Amino acid sequence: MNECPIGIFDSGVGGTSIWKEINGLMSSEDTIYLADSKNAPYGEKSEEQILQLSIKNTELLLEKGCKLIVVACNTATTNAIAYLRKNYNVPFIGIEPAIKPAALQSQSKKVGVLATKGTLSSSLFHSTSENHATGIQILEQEGTGLVPLIEQGKVDSDETKQLLSKFLKPMLDEGIDYLVLGCTHYPYLIPVLREMLPENIKIIDSGEAVARQTKSVLEQNGLSNPSEENGKHQFYTNTDVEVLKYFLKDVKVAAEVSYLAF
Ligand code: DGL
């Protein structure tokens, strides 16, 4: 079992930001990544649709022999992870907006959260906000339209900048000092966001924490790969292979990127 791959899925290319954190921390682990770009954005779908897509991705990763699954998508985590954990016999690691660290560190006591409609409307997101942000004003902003632009590789296009400036304004007007990126596609917007945001505003995402949690759950379950060689990596997309390759252009280890109908 130790030599089996870690499975990772997202509604598209966004979860590659999480894959990079995982590979950075555990280079000997093999991985299989599913980019369900054909069905992006998940954030505009119903809870039931998000659940069914998450089940489809999970079952494919299990067929491929994965020992643990990382749901590298806030929208799928907040809508489906409880079901997945109850119904499948492997550990699942999820990702949620990093409200807790932002709330703990905020001086202005105002934290902005940019995430999909599906994440912001989920009950898991609401309970996390209530439990970890007492005394903090959370300014929620749906990032509708951003995922399709990122899926087209338009991370710094004028259209993307215009949408971002519309989304940031209400949060900036209120005086946030932390911006939480609650979608795994959004870390690809950090260079543009950095240009647009005042220096005192900190941007925070959950990628590193997810990688650390993955490592610790593998260790707790005796599932870590003891190999000292670099892992093997397979990436599958159900749309354009070139788009996925674009988001992996800075990856230095060998990775196979293929089309798969799923
Ligand atoms: N990467 C997904 C997330 O973290 C994007 C969701 C979508 O496809 O709308 O929420």
Topology of this structure?
Blueprint: E1 6-10, H1 16-25, E2 31-35, H2 47-63, E3 68-71, H3 74-87, E4 92-93, H4 99-105, E5 110-115, H5 117-120, H6 123-132, E6 137-142, H7 146-151, H8 158-174, E7 178-182, H9 190-196, E8 202-204, H10 207-220, E9 233-237, H11 241-247, E10 255-259
Parallel strand pairs: 1-2, 1-3, 2-9, 3-4, 5-6, 5-7, 7-8, 9-10
Helix pairs in contact: 1-10, 2-3
The structure holds D-glutamic acid.
Residues 10-11, 14, 40-43, 73-75, 116, 119, 147, 183-185 line the site of D-glutamic acid (DGL).
Protein described:
It contains 11 helices and 10 strands. The protein has 262 residues and is α/β, with parallel strands linked by helices. The strands form 2 sheets. The protein has a 6-stranded parallel β-sheet, sandwiched between helices. A 4-stranded parallel β-sheet has the order 6-5-7-8, sandwiched between helices. Helix 9 links the parallel strand 7 (178-182) and strand 8 (202-204). The two termini are 25 Å apart. Bound molecules: D-glutamic acid. D-glutamic acid is lined by residues 10-11, 14, 40-43, 73-75, 116, 119, 147, 183-185. D-glutamic acid binds at residues 10-11, 14, 40-43, 73-75, 116, 119, 147, 183-185.
